[in-house]
């Protein structure tokens, strides 16, 4: 029988499928004029049936494909995705292994074409062909491009389908090809045109004012309202009203026009970018809003650099060995579930252990080392329904190989820093109570730093036990603040 039925298994991948059966085909060379035109655009003439499908593709932009009807198994054409490890020998003679993401055209027994890319060898047109199924379809462009890239198979058809073809073109191209086949291959129409169109593409609308277009182009002498309407109509864009705020109906073959800026670009493109006068944009100049905290951080860094300190950057993560060495309790650290190394097992609540480790590294090369770090400390939540707390912190450490007391030096640096930052009513007072942070300080040489009676940090010398653990010869002055 010459009757065929068409089914689409995934309308997202095949948006439209039009086909017709033609009989009494006489396969022979195409007319010379058609061969010359095809050669002029780099397409090799094959025979009249194949040449007509290529000619219509070049003329209208809609790829077509012809199957030999007598080589198809059964009366059904199925648009489906390939089965795992399914193979198809394409027209170039290559056997290709497909996967489930690839769209194919199949008969009742096997795949007969890679949808929108290349036909199969099993159903190709040859000199004995007398009946064809002529296909004109629309395939989803992302899937088509992905399949072509996976297989390394770029064709004239796949190039066009990858540009998001208009499904409204399938019947137009099919009717054009039927006319040419009737004239140059003596074809007769055996069946009515089959047209499966699950979801019709609708025309988009955009409302835009002519003043908006003129303002964006920036050259009132180049464009006026009459010109704008005339240009839009030449582009097959329907203008509902010619008032100052018309609604534009975008044709389905222009899916790239989606927003007002696209319309402005079309007008400018037609008028000619080289015809526009170069003018500077006019905008109100407003002062930049400064972030007080960022400004404070910059001043702090600049001040510390001025008094001889070097900034360091450390990871937010620390290892158990480091905070144990510094005498800090494990309970204050948030443990990571998937640490990448023993040195990055916990989130640090304080910066001093990392800066002290930096001092240990640098003292091997320098007799005098002064370092600081400005970063966030992360402390665990106090309740189950709360999140961990992030606080900005500043840590200082001062090491001198020849000095056995560093309290006055580190205190002087802190005083100078707080003075430059205009911290009011600063006072230093000895602190006796125990605190997690204070375990790093020597008991007899430490002080709480307050501003208006509120503790903002601590300053002093490193705990002797910690100094021994690190093997420091000289005394290390340390300080840490809430920033």
Write the layout of secondary structure elements.
Elements: E1 5-8, E2 14-23, H1 32-40, H2 48-60, E3 65-68, E4 76-81, E5 87-89, E6 95-97, E7 103-106, E8 111-114, E9 118-119, E10 132-139, H3 141-151, H4 156-161, H5 170-184, E11 188-189, E12 194-196, E13 205-207, H6 210-217, H7 225-234, E14 238-239, E15 247-249, H8 260-271, H9 292-306, E16 310-311, E17 317-318, H10 320-325, E18 334-335, E19 346-347, H11 352-362, E20 368-379, E21 389-400, H12 407-420, E22 426-430, E23 441-451, E24 454-462, H13 464-470, E25 476-482
Parallel strand pairs: 1-4, 16-20
Antiparallel strand pairs: 2-10, 2-11, 2-12, 3-10, 4-7, 5-6, 7-8, 8-9, 13-15, 14-15, 17-19, 18-19, 20-21, 21-25, 22-23, 23-24, 24-25
Helix pairs in contact: 1-2, 2-5, 6-8, 9-12
At a glance:
By secondary structure, the protein is an alpha+beta fold.
Key traits:
alpha+beta; ATP-binding; single chain; Phenylalanyl-tRNA Synthetase, Chain B, domain 3; magnesium; phenylalanine-tRNA ligase activity; 7-stranded mixed sheet; aminoacyl-trna synthetase; 13 helices; Phenylalanyl-tRNA Synthetase, Chain B, domain 1; 5-stranded mixed sheet; 483 residues; BirA Bifunctional Protein, domain 2
């Amino acid at each position: 029988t010459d009757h065929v039925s068409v089914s689409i298994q995934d309308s997202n991948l095949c948006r439209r499928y039009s086909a017709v059966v033609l009989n009494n085909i006489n396969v022979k060379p195409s007319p010379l004029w058609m061969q010359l035109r095809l050669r002029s655009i780099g397409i090799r003439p094959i025979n009249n049936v194949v040449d007509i499908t290529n000619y219509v593709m070049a003329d209208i932009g809609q790829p077509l494909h012809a199957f030999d009807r007598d080589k198809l198994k059964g009366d059904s054409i199925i648009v489906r995705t390939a089965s795992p490890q399914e193979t198809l020998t394409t027209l170039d003679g290559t056997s290709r292994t497909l996967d489930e993401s690839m769209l194919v055209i199949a008969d009742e027994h096997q795949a007969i074409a890679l949808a929108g890319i290349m036909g199969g060898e099993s159903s190709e047109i040859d000199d004995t062909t007398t009946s064809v199924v002529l296909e004109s379809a629309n395939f989803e462009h992302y899937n088509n491009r992905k399949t072509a890239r996976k297989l390394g198979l770029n064709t004239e058809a796949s190039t066009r389908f990858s540009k998001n073809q208009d499904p409204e073109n399938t019947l137009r191209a099919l009717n054009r090809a039927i006319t040419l086949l009737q004239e140059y291959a003596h074809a007769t129409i055996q069946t009515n045109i089959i047209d499966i169109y699950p979801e019709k593409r609708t025309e988009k609308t955009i409302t835009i004012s002519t003043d908006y277009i003129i303002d964006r182009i920036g050259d009132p002498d180049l464009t006026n309202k009459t010109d704008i309407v005339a240009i839009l109509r030449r582009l097959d864009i329907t203008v509902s009203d010619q008032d100052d705020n018309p609604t534009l109906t975008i044709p389905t073959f222009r899916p790239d026009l989606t927003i007002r800026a696209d319309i402005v670009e079309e007008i400018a493109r037609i008028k000619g970018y080289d015809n526009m006068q170069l003018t500077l944009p006019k905008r109100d100049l407003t002062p930049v809003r400064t972030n007080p905290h960022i400004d404070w951080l910059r001043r702090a860094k600049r001040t510390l650099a001025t008094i001889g300190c070097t900034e360091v950057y450390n990871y937010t993560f620390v290892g158990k060995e480091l905070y144990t060495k510094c005498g800090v309790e494990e309970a204050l650290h948030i443990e990571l579930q998937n640490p990448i190394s023993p040195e990055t097992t916990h989130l640090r609540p304080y910066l001093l252990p990392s800066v002290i480790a930096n001092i240990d590294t640098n003292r091997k090369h320098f007799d005098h080392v002064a370092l600081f770090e400005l970063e966030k400390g992360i402390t665990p939540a106090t309740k189950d329904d709360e999140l961990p707390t992030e606080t900005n912190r500043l840590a200082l450490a001062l090491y001198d190989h020849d000095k056995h007391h560093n309290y006055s030096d580190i205190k002087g640096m802190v005083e100078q820093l707080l003075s430059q930052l205009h911290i009011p009513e600063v006072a230093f007072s000895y602190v006796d109570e125990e605190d997690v942070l204070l375990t790093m300080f020597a008991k007899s040489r430490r002080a709480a730093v307050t501003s208006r009676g509120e503790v903002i940090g601590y300053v002093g010398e490193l705990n002797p036990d910690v100094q021994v653990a690190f093997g420091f010869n000289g005394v290390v002055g340390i300080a840490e603040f809430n920033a």
